[in-house]
């Protein structure tokens, strides 16, 4: 017979948290439209974790469906560069920093390793048939500790064949096809985000810092160059077509000048990721095969995922049924044992 779990209840910034007693020292670290996040310490393992509480997950069928989808996606992902799900309260390992908090200039070997981990995580996610649709960089950086990047936040992740909305990626990292509202964009939308992040790590500043979504598109065109008729013909949105046609002619920038700190191989990779036409952009698999990662590749870094079953993603079900399905997922959850990467300790961040 299972022992009864004791819970502690406390209020933090007007939000009530009721968590298992082993989680102590709760501190709010973020909040958004759909939930709040606290850091905490697992008193048994001494591990620092992040606990996500969804706001009113069963307020409506739409909220319940979103909560169920995130729960299933987190359960499904079993890769060291994808944030794991530890407990049914959406408890995850605490990630100590993200790109916006990294101070100083990153050396190229560190950038190379971080991008490699991003692509390994995305290859796994894409192999399961998922598009992440978020700025995908969070780094576990504990002073002079280790580098371990993990992709997190699956609240807006969707199956690759699902129809998409245009307002899902942090604007500065948003692929042009998202801005132009292509409804059936592909997994290479995530590769654009990786290219933006890689460029930012080299230059120490945001690559495309648009004031609004139209200015964002203009900032992109100033780097990639104005597209020709073949690209414009692919646009499904008439307004997008008209807007792109109305843009002044911008020549494509020389990437070696744009990224003066980057090696030739790094520049070549950036040129193949930051491609305006999504059909010509590299996939995660092709990016990992690039010569920039020669000497880093390890088959163990790219396990084959189980395809994600999205049979409920487009379902319309009553609220009580979403509750039942969510409870079923919680009851069947088994934590994934994290692999101790043999290269985790080869790089440090200062």
From TrEMBL:
Keyword Phosphoprotein found: yes
Enzyme Commission number: 2.7.11.24
Chain residues that bind ATP: 53
UniProt keywords, alphabetically: ATP-binding, Kinase, Nucleotide-binding, Phosphoprotein, Serine/threonine-protein kinase, Stress response, Transferase
GO molecular function: ATP binding; MAP kinase activity
Family: Belongs to the protein kinase superfamily. CMGC Ser/Thr protein kinase family. MAP kinase subfamily.
Protein known as: mitogen-activated protein kinase
């Amino acid at each position: 017979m299972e022992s009864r779990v004791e819970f502690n209840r406390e209020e933090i910034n007007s939000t009530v948290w009721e968590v298992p007693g082993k989680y102590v020292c709760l501190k709010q670290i973020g909040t958004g439209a759909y939930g709040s996040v606290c850091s905490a310490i697992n008193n048994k393992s001494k591990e620092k974790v992040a606990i996500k509480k969804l706001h009113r997950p069963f307020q409506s069928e739409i909220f319940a469906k979103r909560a169920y989808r995130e729960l299933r996606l987190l359960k499904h992902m079993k890769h060291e560069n994808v944030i794991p799900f530890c407990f049914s309260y959406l408890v995850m390992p605490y990630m100590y920093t993200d790109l916006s908090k990294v101070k100083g200039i990153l050396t190229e070997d560190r950038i190379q390793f971080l991008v490699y981990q991003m692509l390994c995580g995305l290859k796994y996610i894409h192999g399961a048939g998922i598009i992440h649709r978020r700025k995908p960089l969070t780094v576990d950086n504990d002073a002079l500790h280790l580098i371990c990047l993990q992709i997190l936040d699956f609240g807006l992740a969707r199956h690759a064949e699902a129809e998409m909305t245009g307002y899902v990626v942090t604007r500065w990292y948003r692929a042009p096809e998202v801005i132009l509202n292509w409804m059936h964009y592909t997994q290479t939308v995530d590769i654009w985000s990786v290219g933006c992040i890689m460029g930012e790590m080299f230059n120490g500043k945001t690559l495309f810092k648009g004031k609004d979504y139209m200015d964002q598109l203009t900032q992109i065109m100033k780097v990639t160059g104005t597209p020709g008729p073949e690209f414009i013909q692919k646009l499904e949105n008439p307004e997008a077509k008209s807007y792109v046609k109305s843009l002044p002619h911008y020549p494509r920038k020389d990437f070696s000048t744009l990224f003066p700190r980057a090696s030739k191989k790094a520049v070549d990779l950036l040129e193949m990721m930051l491609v305006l036409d999504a059909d010509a952009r590299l996939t995660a698999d092709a990016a990992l095969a690039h010569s920039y990662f020669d000497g880093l590749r390890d088959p163990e870094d790219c396990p084959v995922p189980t395809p994600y079953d999205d049979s409920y993603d487009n379902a319309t079900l009553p609220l009580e049924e979403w509750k039942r399905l969510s409870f079923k997922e919680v009851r069947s959850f088994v934590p994934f044992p994290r692999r101790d990467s043999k290269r985790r300790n080869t790089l440090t961040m200062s």
